[in-house]
Design brief:
alpha+beta, 3 helices
Length: 65
């Protein structure tokens, strides 16, 4: 069950990153129901698997480079 939650969160986060609508890490943590630290871990894992990510302060969102 935990792995299903993890996969769902990762896929949801990838979709938000592609749409460039993640919000700040704090907002994203609230949206996903996890800690801000877990958001950074998920972002790092996605970056390792799918390429570099960056945070755009203008759009207030993570995005793929």
């Amino acid at each position: 069950m935990q792995f299903d939650k993890y996969l769902h969160r990762i896929n949801f986060l990838k979709d938000l990153i592609q749409k460039e609508s993640t919000g700040s890490p704090k907002e994203l943590a609230t949206r996903l129901g996890i800690s801000e630290r877990m958001v950074y871990r998920y972002v790092r894992e996605i970056a390792e698997q799918h390429g570099e990510l960056e945070y755009c302060r203008i759009k207030n969102s993570y995005k793929f480079k």
